[in-house]
């Protein structure tokens, strides 16, 4: 697995489309909707840790129903700092976790969850312990606790945030962050000390919903 050079983002030749991710999320410029579009239809289970060179990956299983379509969870990974930013916040959140789903037509949906410094996160602690044990989990980890399922979220059409930066990706980004302790963040940084967050991209008039 090749390490991505985040210092040369301007040279990512695939990244010149009109629907790129991540973006700056602005609640005052988002269309409000009370209609739920997602339903978690089975637990999200982490099965195997993967050293992705830039960040931690997790082979995972689970399903989600979005706009009447079924998606299966393929993998989960992290970005340091958070890639999606909130307009009303002065700095990026500490970490962002991406749940990457795919439907039968291989179209992707990504659920983004951000973290700020606060209380210790027990599920994150289990993942860190696995990293310490040569990236091996003692048993599967229920990742559903890392999704604020009763929180508001943004929904928009974008892209992958790493090359090949493929567009046509549906994004769900939760507004409410979860917490990790400063010690947990530093623990993670012992393995991945370099930031692996892509810069925010122009919205180019895209419709962004806050649900």
UniProtKB/TrEMBL annotation:
GO terms for molecular function: carbonate dehydratase activity; zinc ion binding. InterPro entries: Alpha_CA_prokaryot-like, CA_dom, CA_dom_sf, Carbonic_anhydrase_a-class. Keywords: Lyase, Metal-binding, Zinc. The keyword GTP-binding does not apply. Residues 2-211 form the Alpha-carbonic anhydrase domain. This is carbonic anhydrase. It holds the Pfam family Carb_anhydrase. It catalyses: hydrogencarbonate + H(+) = CO2 + H2O. Belongs to the alpha-carbonic anhydrase family. Its EC number is 4.2.1.1.
